[in-house]
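Private note to self, pasted from the team thread so I don't lose it. Backbone tokens:
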């Protein structure tokens, strides 16, 4: 689940999630939720723990690197 969707589903603001997760600034949470930047390993762990495993590093990879369709070889 993407962080943006999780925050909306749980009715949390960026600031509230920053406090809950231990991420220093709400602006950082905002950049993560919009896909502007990729979380540091420490913040990935904090996000996973704060969301009870519902938002993981894989969710950020999917957000930053959309699936590439592989063409079959002739």
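Design output:
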């Amino acid at each position: 689940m993407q962080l943006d969707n999780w925050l909306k589903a749980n009715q949390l603001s960026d600031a509230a999630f920053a406090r809950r997760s231990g991420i220093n600034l709400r602006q950082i949470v905002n950049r993560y939720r919009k896909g502007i930047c990729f979380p540091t390993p420490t913040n990935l762990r904090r996000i996973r723990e704060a969301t009870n495993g519902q938002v993981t590093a894989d969710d950020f990879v999917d957000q930053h690197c959309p699936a590439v369709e592989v063409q079959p070889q002739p």
